[in-house]
Amino acid sequence: MKKAEKNLEALRGNAYPGRGLVIGLDEDGRHLVQVYWIMGRSANSRNRVFVADGPTLRTEPADASKVEDPSLIIYNAMSEFEGTCIVTNGNQTDTIYDALAGGVTFAGALETREYEPDAPNFTPRISGISIIEDGTVNTYLSVLKKSPFADACVRNTFQYEALPTGAGYTITTYTGDGAPLPSFEGEPYLLPLAGTPGEIAQDLWEALDADNRISLAVKAVNLETGVSIIEVTNAYEQATA
To answer: Which fold has domain 2-234?
Structure first.
């Protein structure tokens, strides 16, 4: 936990880690916890909210009349398929869901995808799944990013047969601010997941830069019953028609 708390302090000092996801267990080990947050600097990127619908989380425009380009900002971020909980930073959520439904693996699904086509940043696609079976959790995390040497994709996949209690493995799209934005490097790092879903949401929301944070969601899945809840925090309210 000391390492996780130290990483949380580092996150507080990072103006722009971009989009991030965290996967771990709550403090009593009874719930899988998945966290996803988004940040934004452009008007188009900031014009978003999270909407939870049962076990599904999606992004929607805060003001539909101001959307400039929905292609990389509107998508399902969390979904579930037969005991497998999916979380990603883009429309590869649907790619993974459809692949699992067709008998294809997580890695096989992502072989069809690569980093986002948003030059000059070429934002990495970050994805995770947790397979719940008989109260145990097998977790995979993936980072797809552009090679620094060619127009090719670097594919990093991490598998965890056990998750920490009270902490979670974290990947983000960027390591910090810059021009272009520097892509995530190294292995997933730990962040604390202490307290209720609401308390976890508050701790991580407060750690994100107040000028750039847009939305954050915490999903808690009971390992015994499979029932899930999603706690959502949005910087902006959704405009009504």
So the answer is: Glutamine Phosphoribosylpyrophosphate, subunit 1, domain 1 (3.60.20)
